[in-house]
């Protein structure tokens, strides 16, 4: 039920838009602290014991597994839903000398690379099984990585003894990940996406915006993951080349871009809330984060991103998003040659563009409309 609070009367405030947005964030994003604590404890217990089982059941995994890297919105403080979904990179380290390996950017689509072992024969005697399972002609093959990690997880599941806190474990395939659905004794289902990933340092990719390059180190820490190359609306690449392509991710550089930048994280969360409410599934969370990263690149002044300017920045983010959607082009932050919106259809573009235009006008005319836009119940009265 709405209640009247004199101190929260938007007509008497300098920034009614900010007040309302903060209330929407407070009421719409409810991360249960007790559930968070419980789920994290269960997750840590499970990962420690399950990885041990994976190593016990697969010789190659035991050879190359290095550590877990916890990724995704939960760990970058961008989650807007309950803490029951986790993205974990299973970081692999191959037993090859650095000088024997080259990682090559694909020039037409620099968000993908090839991992090449220059002289496989040098390692044939000692690591023949590893080379047979994951490599062809010296190249790491993403499809083989996906099949392999699925088989490793499935074998471990057969012999794994569930911890006392869990009732059941089921596995499904999802893109480059093997998704584990862990049901706890209390009936909560925890989704864990396990993704095999190669951690390495690479030079800046071709096509990087000069402003981005100026903010980045000479070499960037990254992860190579076996995400399939989508041929539709992407640069034409031969089938033999496609089968060797691994997707590059730069989580450390991204976290540095948005770290300690005032209201940027609340703005990203608001975009995600709106996306979910409008069911714009084509707009992945990473795309919305990218919109804000480009905004930060244009102006990272602390005054510009102050908390009391959240309303201005959110409106600006909506306007930027509308422009990208209307052009059906959102440049990848680390290489402008790549278009993140390459799969959006003309119909989707027109529908989202039109709705964003109406939302922007509505907010500009009356901040109170934000309650309706987010399908939220006002927490104070409007005079």
From TrEMBL:
Residues 74-260 form the Mab-21-like nucleotidyltransferase domain. One of its GO terms (molecular function) is GTP binding. It holds the Pfam family Mab-21. The keyword Transferase applies. Its cofactor is Mg(2+); Mn(2+). InterPro entries: Mab-21-like_nuc_Trfase, Mab-21_HhH/H2TH-like, MAB21L/cGLR. Residues 263-356 form the Mab-21-like HhH/H2TH-like domain. Belongs to the mab-21 family. This is Protein mab-21. It comes from Stegodyphus mimosarum (African social velvet spider).
């Amino acid at each position: 039920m709405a209640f009247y609070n004199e101190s929260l009367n938007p007509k008497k405030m300098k920034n009614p838009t900010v007040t309302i947005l903060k209330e929407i964030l407070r009421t719409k994003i409810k991360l249960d602290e007790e559930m968070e604590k419980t789920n994290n404890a269960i997750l840590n217990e499970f990962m420690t014991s399950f990885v041990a089982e994976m190593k016990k059941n697969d010789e190659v995994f035991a050879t190359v597994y290095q550590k877990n890297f916890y990724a995704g919105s939960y760990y970058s403080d961008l989650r807007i839903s309950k803490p029951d979904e986790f993205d974990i990179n299973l970081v692999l380290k191959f037993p090859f000398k650095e000088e024997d390996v080259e990682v090559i950017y694909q020039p037409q689509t620099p968000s993908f690379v090839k991992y090449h072992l220059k002289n496989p024969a040098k390692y044939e005697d000692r690591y023949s099984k590893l080379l047979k399972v994951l490599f062809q002609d010296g190249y790491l093959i993403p499809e083989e990585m996906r099949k392999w990690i699925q088989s490793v997880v499935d074998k471990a599941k057969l012999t794994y003894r569930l911890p006392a806190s869990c009732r059941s474990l089921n596995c499904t395939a999802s893109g480059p990940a093997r998704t584990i659905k862990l049901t706890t004794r209390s009936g909560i289902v925890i989704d864990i996406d396990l993704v095999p990933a190669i951690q390495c340092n690479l030079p800046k990719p071709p096509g990087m915006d000069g402003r981005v390059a100026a903010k980045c180190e000479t070499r960037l820490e990254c992860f190579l993951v076996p995400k399939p190359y989508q041929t539709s609306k992407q640069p034409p690449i031969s089938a033999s080349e496609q089968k060797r392509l691994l997707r590059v991710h730069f989580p450390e550089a991204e976290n540095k871009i948005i770290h300690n930048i005032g209201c940027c994280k609340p703005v990203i969360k608001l975009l995600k809330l709106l996306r979910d409410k409008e069911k714009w599934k084509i707009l992945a969370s990473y795309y919305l984060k990218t919109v804000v990263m480009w905004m930060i690149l244009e102006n990272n002044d602390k005054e510009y991103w102050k908390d009391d300017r959240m309303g201005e920045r959110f409106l600006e983010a909506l306007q930027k998003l509308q422009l990208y959607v209307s052009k059906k082009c959102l440049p990848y932050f680390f290489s402008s040659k790549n278009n993140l919106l390459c799969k959006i259809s003309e119909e989707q573009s027109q529908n989202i563009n039109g709705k964003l235009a109406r939302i922007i006008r509505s907010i500009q005319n009356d901040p109170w409309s934000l309650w309706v836009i987010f399908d939220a119940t006002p927490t104070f009265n409007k005079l």
